[in-house]
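Journal club side-thread
Mid-discussion, someone asked how the predicted structure for our own chain would compare to the paper's figures. Pasting it here so we can look after the session.
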Amino acid sequence: MNDRELILARIRAAVTPGGPGDPGEPGEIVRDYLTSAGPHDEAGLTELLAERVADYRAVVHVTGEDEVAATIASALAVQGLTRPVVPGGLPAQWVPEGAVQDDPELSAEELEAAGGVVTGCAVAIAETGTIVLDAGPGQGRRALTLLPDYHLCVVRAGQIVAGVPQALAVLDPSRPLTWISGPSATSDIELNRVEGVHGPRTLEVVIVR
């Protein structure tokens, strides 16, 4: 038996009740593993997400619903952004004054020149500090959050899940998913960190309690 045959035999043994050559149906795969060791209450998830997102060198704000608009306006003022891009479907109260709608779709040059974008998200993962966009309402197309140098993302507490398995359970795999864990960054063989290479250099997250 060569290596290829050995590997295939082990695969058959793992999924077939009677082992290699058994014509029976594959056995049931038991997935009773631990899916999350983190908190499951809303307050605990919010606190953990804020901590993990900050670990990625992102700017984090935790605020109430009635303070979101002011928090967005203040964050944009610090960045010196007066005409950020916003996607369709973003709640009206979150749209900052002077915002540019991505309708009709802006060109790549226009997105880069805008300097910043404000969006919502599909889900956020507390344990990994990851925000997931699926191009749904308030999120926009993928280019919208990859070309501008600054991305401000609003996350509602009800969108936060504990771990990746919980996120996958609510996401549609057929949609264009963008997984964001902090500002875009890479490093060379000497571990010199460079930010903003393949996405926003600055990520700011507003978590709404």
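Post-session note: The chain has a mean pLDDT of 89.
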